[in-house]
Specification:
single chain, Glutaredoxin, Glutathione S-transferase Yfyf (Class Pi), Chain A, domain 2, 9 helices, 4 strands, 53% helix, globular
């Protein structure tokens, strides 16, 4: 498999973490979002959305959109699962994951911030305030969606992660987004559950290996 990604892309971070947890072998090819590699005709032919990640399977099949890629991986490599088999539990996991993937990330995307600057004369400080605002809004919602860890799950396992004792899709989306929160100075004090989840995820070698600073295209 070939994963087209960018070291600082939080959507790529999610997929790298899922691949690593499932022990799926893959190589990486860099798509530099800052220099505009994503708009090159050969890459746009692979991913019409002109974003990352893109996963090319061994048979040449192309998959795009991080949550769709992770859904494919979960169906193809079910261990460990990223989503519960219980419909209600699955819906709760997806609610958290989608709060990141559809409420926070799209309005903080590089191209959206670029439009704020080019079309509406936003300064760098304006852009940072914009991103921090939407992260705080989304994190507040997620904090309320996450269960209270003073109650153990029905299984009796200690609830270290979002919904149990192993990381799932919600945890990967949260951890990747918190990377951006640190980058742009969002105070995590109001979100202790989110902070706990990030710390637990980064203690797992497979997730730590997926972190932006550990990628081959990260600046040294």
């Amino acid at each position: 498999m070939i994963l087209y990604s960018y070291w600082r892309s939080t959507t790529s971070y999610r997929v790298r973490a899922a691949l690593n947890l499932k022990r799926v072998a893959y190589s990486q090819r860099t798509v530099d979002l800052v220099t505009g590699d994503q708009r090159a005709p050969d890459y746009a032919a692979l991913n019409p959305g002109k974003g990352v990640p893109t996963l090319q399977l061994d048979d040449g099949t192309i998959l795009t959109q991080s949550l769709a890629i992770i859904d494919f991986l979960d169906a193809t490599y079910p261990d460990p699962p990223m989503l519960s088999g219980d419909p209600a539990a699955r819906a709760r996991q997806l609610a958290v994951a989608l709060t990141v993937a559809t409420d926070i990330h799209p309005v903080n995307n590089l191209r959206v911030v670029g439009q704020l600057k080019s079309r509406f004369n936003a300064t760098a400080d304006d852009a940072q305030d914009w991103m921090c605002h939407w992260m705080a809004e989304g994190f507040a919602a997620i904090e309320d969606l996450l269960p209270d860890t003073t109650h153990e799950p029905a299984s009796g396992a200690t609830q270290t992660f979002a919904f149990g004792d192993t990381p799932d899709l919600a945890d990967l989306c949260i951890t990747a987004q918190v990377y951006n929160a640190h980058r742009w100075g969002v105070d995590l004090t109001p979100y202790p559950k989110i902070a706990r989840i990030e710390a637990a995820c980064l203690a797992i070698p497979e997730i730590q290996a997926a972190a932006p600073e550990n990628q081959p295209d990260a600046p040294r």
